[in-house]
C-alpha cells in the first residue's frame, strides 16, 4: 500500500484560476496546474524564496518542492509555447495563513498590502 500524501501548506488561493491566451476562440487545450504548483511558482519566482525556504513554508522536503516547481515550470512553458490555457485547481494542500501565524514566517506579497 502506498504511503499517504502529505498535505502541503498554501498561504492563499490564486485570485484568478484561469490563465492563458486572450483569444478564447483559439483555446485548443486546457492544462491543469495544482494549487501547490502555483504556490511553488509564487514563493520561488515571485517572492524570491529559495527552494529550502519554500519547502519550510509549505511543510515538505526540499526535494518535493524541487519536483513540484519543475512540474509547474513545465506547465508554464507548455502554455507559453503552445498557447494552452492553464486552469489552477486541485492538489493535496491545506490553506495555512503563514503570514499571520508567526513573526518568523515570510510575509507574502498579497498580505503585505493589507
TrEMBL record:
It holds the Pfam family DUF134. InterPro entries: RNA_pol_sigma_r3/r4-like, UPF0251, WH-like_DNA-bd_sf. It comes from the Bacteria. Belongs to the UPF0251 family. This is DUF134 domain-containing protein. The lineage of its organism: Bacteria, Bacillati, Bacillota, Clostridia, Eubacteriales.
Amino acid at each position: 500500500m502506498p504511503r499517504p500524501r502529505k498535505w502541503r501548506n498554501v498561504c492563499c488561493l490564486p485570485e484568478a484560476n484561469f490563465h492563458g491566451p486572450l483569444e478564447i476562440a483559439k483555446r485548443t487545450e486546457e492544462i491543469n496546474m495544482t494549487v501547490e504548483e502555483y504556490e511553488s511558482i509564487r514563493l520561488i519566482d515571485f517572492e524570491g524564496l529559495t527552494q529550502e525556504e519554500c519547502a519550510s513554508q509549505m511543510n515538505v522536503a526540499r526535494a518535493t518542492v524541487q519536483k513540484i516547481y519543475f512540474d509547474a515550470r513545465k506547465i508554464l512553458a507548455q502554455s507559453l509555447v503552445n498557447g494552452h490555457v492553464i486552469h489552477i485547481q486541485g492538489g493535496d494542500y491545506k490553506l495555512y495563513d503563514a503570514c499571520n501565524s508567526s513573526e518568523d514566517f515570510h510575509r507574502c506579497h498579497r498580505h503585505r498590502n493589507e
